[in-house]
Amino acid sequence: MRELEQRIKSDGVVLSGDVLKVDQFLNHQVDPDLMFAIGQRFAHLFADNQITKILTVESSGIAPAVMTGLQLHVPVIFARKHKSLTLTDDLYTADVKSFTKQTQNKITVSKKYISADDHVLIIDDFLANGQAVFGLLEIANQADLKVEGVGIVIEKSFQPGAQKIKDQGIRLESLAKIKSLANGQVTFVTEQHD
Ligand code: 5GP
């Protein structure tokens, strides 16, 4: 998605540890026009999949997920993050190691909001090692949901998550694919022309 790549080039900041900071439009300040366009793109890509729910994880997945839900007219559920949990009877839970904070969290979704007849689209802001997506897939598996695919705003293709998802036979659609963040420079896998 060209508009997104241009924004990453102009406002993204490469940090050490192969982290791209996009606080200017996605992770802290949010650009609603760009998020709307992102939602439109995901909705278009998954228009034929009879999606009934969008699943994401708090907090940075919420903006693109809500915009996608708005276009597909389906509810958006964000998994919550907890350090530890005692009562989990009415929750689906999975363990996720945070890429940026290097902490271990449990993510949870209430059993009330997903059921076996749901067709789910998983959305997240970034894909690195795939921990967040695999946590959501684990919850989808517990709930016996049909996962129609995964939509990622920014995929860091040089890290293993993308290949791991594709190896499971799951459809992955990433709107910007980063080949490298070496030397503080963002290089995309292919420059998009739309
Ligand atoms: P993964 O679980 O795939 O290893 O990492 C994805 C999660 O970590 C995303 O939900 C995102 O919040 C965070 N993340 C991973 N890489 C980056 C990055 O380069 N920049 C930012 N801002 N977040 C990242």
TrEMBL record:
EC number: 2.4.2.22
GO molecular function terms listed in the Swiss-Prot or TrEMBL record: xanthine phosphoribosyltransferase activity
First-tier enzyme category under EC: transferase
Pathway(s) of this molecule: Purine metabolism; XMP biosynthesis via salvage pathway; XMP from xanthine: step 1/1
GO cellular component, one term: cytoplasm
InterPro entries per record: PRTase-like, PRTase_dom, Pur/Pyrimidine_PRTase, Xanthine_PRibTrfase
Chief location of this protein within or outside the cell: cytoplasm
PANTHER family (UniProt xref): HYPOXANTHINE/GUANINE PHOSPHORIBOSYLTRANSFERASE (PTHR43864), XANTHINE PHOSPHORIBOSYLTRANSFERASE (PTHR43864:SF1)
Subunit structure: Homodimer.
HAMAP family referenced in this protein's UniProt entry, alphabetically: XPRTase
UniProt family annotation: Belongs to the purine/pyrimidine phosphoribosyltransferase family. Xpt subfamily.
Protein name, per record: Xanthine phosphoribosyltransferase
Protein species of origin: Paucilactobacillus wasatchensis
Protein encoded by which gene: xpt
